[in-house]
Structures are given as structure tokens and as C-alpha cells.
Amino acid sequence: MSSTIVLGWREWVALPALGLDAVRAKVDSGARSSALHVDRQWRFVERGAPWVGFALTPGDAAGHSIEAAAPVFDEREVTDSGGHATRRVFLRTPMRLAGVEREIEINLSDRRGMLFPMLLGRTAIAGTFTIDPARSFLHGRLEPGMAAVVHRRPGPFR
């Protein structure tokens, strides 16, 4: 297993095709799929194929919004940790983490009440990464000027 890269339980993840340099993500082997917080989403057709546009607010003091769009990869039911199932849009996009870039599936979700705007599930980390739950942010910190998505709420995990 020495060829796998160790991640902390939280990391900064880049989603370059979506214009996101850094997204604060909880690495969660208990979650099958990855989820990205969006404030709103809309559908449209591009060259005969279904696409999804979405907007999210980075959580910075400026309160500006980031908009992105991607082809719809799939739509399927996702059951959250509370047992509630909802139908979600999935997209495939490159993710960059710890010097590795790979394409992952992400569903778009309202994670407004969550500490992290992104959940990095086990299908995104399988075969390349392992998790050390006692460590955090092993692969970089937020740099000034990055297009970052950060949810902050009072609590010990800032």
C-alpha cells in the first residue's frame, strides 16, 4: 500500500474545469459519491446534449457568486446520512489533489448547512488515496488570490 497517497480528513481540492482553484473538502470514506454545494442550478441543452449550469457563493467577505456549467453525466438517487433519498445531477470533472489529477463524479447538492462545501467520497479516492483521520490539510493550504469555496460557521474546525 506504499504507492497510495495519504490524505487528511479534510483537504483543499481543485476543480480546474469548473474554475475552482480550491474547495474545502471533507474526505469521507463512508460516503460513496462526492458532492459539491451549489446555491442554485439550471438545465439547458448544448449541441443536443443536456447540461447543467450552477452557481455557488465562495463564502468570502465579498459575497460574490461563481457560475460554472458542465455536461450532465447522470441523474440518480442519493441517500444522505439521515436516510433521505433525493434525485441529484452528476457531472464528471477533473479533480486535482496532492499532485494527482483524475476525473471524478460529483453530484450537485445543497450543502448550505454543512461545514464543508464539498464531500470527497470513496469512489473519488479509491485506488490512489488513503485517509489518516488524525491529520488535516496535508497537501497544501489556501493561498491568497485562489478562487476558493469555503463554508465557515462557528465551531472548532475552522
UniProtKB/TrEMBL annotation:
InterPro entries noted in UniProt: Asp_endopeptidase, Peptidase_aspartic_dom_sf
Database matches in SUPFAM superfamilies: Acid proteases
Keyword Protease: yes
An MF annotation (GO) of this entry: peptidase activity
Name recorded for this polypeptide: ATP-dependent zinc protease
A Pfam family matched in the record: Zn_protease
Residue ranges of every copy of the Retropepsin-like aspartic endopeptidase domain listed in the record: 6-139
Lineage: Bacteria, Pseudomonadati, Pseudomonadota, Gammaproteobacteria, Lysobacterales
Keyword Nucleotide-binding attached: no
